[in-house]
């Protein structure tokens, strides 16, 4: 059963494993974050990303820090479409 911890915990795991160079944990955390913050346009339409516990701003910073371009792309998309941008 695929039941990952809350996304903020996964984001912390990704940051730590990336900076400490622990490839197995980084790969797991990267996969979970990419599944939620997919750059696939078909998965973007009609979904509210705010329920996942990681803001678009946090996702962009995380994506840039850890080199996850798809997460940056999706985070930027979410920022642009937000009413407060």
Verbal overview:
With 85 residues, the protein is mainly alpha-helical. The chain has one domain (7-81). The protein has helices at residues 7-20, 23-36, 41-44, 56-66, 69-81. The longest helix is centred in the N-terminal third of the chain and has 14 residues, at 7-20. It is globular and about 35 Å long. The model has no long low-confidence stretch (mean pLDDT 88).
Question: Which helices and strands occur, and which strands form pairs?
Answer:
Layout: H1 7-20, H2 23-36, H3 41-44, H4 56-66, H5 69-81
Helix pairs in contact: 1-2, 1-4, 4-5
Total helical segments? 5
Q: Assembly type of the shown chains?
A: single chain
Q: Would you tell me the structural class of the helices and strands?
A: mainly alpha
Number of strands: 0
Contiguous low-pLDDT stretches (5 residues minimum) are: none
Give a quick precis of the structure.
With 85 residues, the protein is an all-alpha fold.
Which key terms come to mind for this protein?
single chain, 85 residues, mainly alpha
């Amino acid at each position: 059963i695929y039941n990952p911890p809350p996304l903020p915990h996964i984001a912390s795991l990704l940051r730590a494993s990336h900076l400490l160079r622990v490839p197995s944990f980084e790969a797991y955390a990267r996969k979970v974050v990419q599944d939620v913050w997919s750059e696939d346009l078909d998965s973007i339409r009609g979904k509210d990303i705010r329920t996942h516990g990681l803001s678009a701003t946090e996702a962009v910073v995380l994506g840039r820090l850890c080199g996850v371009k798809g997460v940056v792309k999706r985070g930027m998309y979410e920022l642009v479409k937000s009413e407060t941008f």
